[in-house]
Amino acid sequence: MSDDNQIPPERFTPEPQGNGNQGRPPLVINGQYVKDLSFEAPNTPQVFSALQGEQPQIKVDIDVQADPKAENVFEVALKVRAEARAKEQLVYLLEVEYGGLYTLNVPEQQLGPVLLIECPLILFPFLRRIVADLTSDGGFAPLMLAPIDFAQLYRQRIQQMQAQREQTAQA
User: How many other β-carbons are positioned within 10 Å of the β-carbon of residue 135?
Assistant: First the structure.
């Protein structure tokens, strides 16, 4: 029997070396799930006439939260709230919280960036699809969330925390 059908080992990602975690992967996705989902279009079907020839004004807010659940296990949740209005009339209100449960084997100084940048990057495409499907299923044009720079959001969060510490120290 020949070894022609074997996959060469160089096709596989090597185990991380020297991270002090005995070869455990730095990030494991334990699960992803919808935690909360709400879609309201209270003014249908009348609102469709307001949408004739006019694009709705859509305000989108996104937040990232991370909470420890057990040793090395964290829940990361992306929350999105989108409100669409046309001619001052509510078209729809959408709220989704999409979460992921992760096991992290990284040094403590890397926890923040992994939890608030890397984990949301994994969750975002799934959240984006849910939002697009939900608005489409509601009878409206799909809302396609623009890509998010989670690294920039993380830097802003760090700057806000530093500013708050400085204000507290001066008080």
Answer: 22
